[in-house]
Amino acid sequence: MYYSTFTTSDNCPLAFQSSLPLPIAAAEGASAPKTCILLLHGFSGSSAYFTRNAAALSSSPAAHWVVCPDMRGHGRSGHNPARGGYHVARLAADLRELLAHLRRQLPTAEAEAAAPPAVRFVPVGCSIGAAVVWTYLELFGERDGGGEDLFAGFVFVDQAPLQDRAALGLGGAWGAEAAHRGCFDEASMLAAQRAWVEEPARTHRALVRECLGYRFAPTQEEADDDEGEERARRDEDFFTGISAVCDGVWLARLLADHTRYDHREACEAVTKPVLVMAGRRSGCFPLEGMEETVRRARKGGNRDAEMMVFESGHWLFYEEPERFNRELLKFVERCTS
């Protein structure tokens, strides 16, 4: 993977990893990639989350182009706190600018230099990454300014389309059986904000225990595993090190915005194939909440929407990488064949 950067319209540097060096040079006898898999990390994460996925996905026989961004305020990307930017909508605008930037990196015939090359994206939105994709679709739609299809399909990983419980039932009933397990109303959100700002180290460790299935709901076999402690320490060091890079105050403000968004109706407008990947042992969302994305897509007339349940937690791409990579590649091939 190759690190690269570009600067957004509000002068914020954003970093991302690409399986291909950029710009992509035209090679004799070789064609430009037709599909780009976008791996979008979750809250307080970075492109490093996909250490068990990116290389395997890009080295598959189909040789897909794989791109893993560091969202604004995460990883190696900037965040311009004096200008705000702690909104899911700003992250969606960043995604739009990233797509435009990536299309400019493709080799183009001289006669077609004025038109962006054809490449279709498959965003894989994990956690808040899913919220960013839903917001993108609500704001900008599935096509570019010239009416060309940008996307081949969408994957949403362990994220319900609404975190908060909907006490008034607006948009339909939404209670504890569907909402986020730990951050679901004003009081729990304020407590989470204080934790990210005042006790970051403890909060980073708590996030790991919540997001890894073998930590949140260990099986008897996992509990009895003599090497379990070493695995837990190694994984905790890996994920807390990524979270520690982030500005806790900025994250706390992003959290307040993220938890309020209701994406249920936005899911009804998705026309391309949809795959929801959910962790049975997720400490973040119940399966009932994540299944809503499929129900809403079908309600909007999309018959190519399904949910797949993994036996791990919120970070299922890390706990079950072989299955995640295999199922994702099958979905991409189906969407692009």
Automatic annotation (TrEMBL):
One of its GO terms (molecular function) is hydrolase activity. Pfam families: Abhydrolase_6. One of its GO terms (cellular component) is membrane. Coiled coil: none annotated. It comes from the Eukaryota. Residues 37-326 form the AB hydrolase-1 domain. The keyword Signal does not apply. Keywords: Hydrolase. Gene3D superfamilies: alpha/beta hydrolase. InterPro entries: AB_hydrolase_1, AB_hydrolase_fold, AB_hydrolase_sf, Epox_hydrolase-like. This is AB hydrolase-1 domain-containing protein.
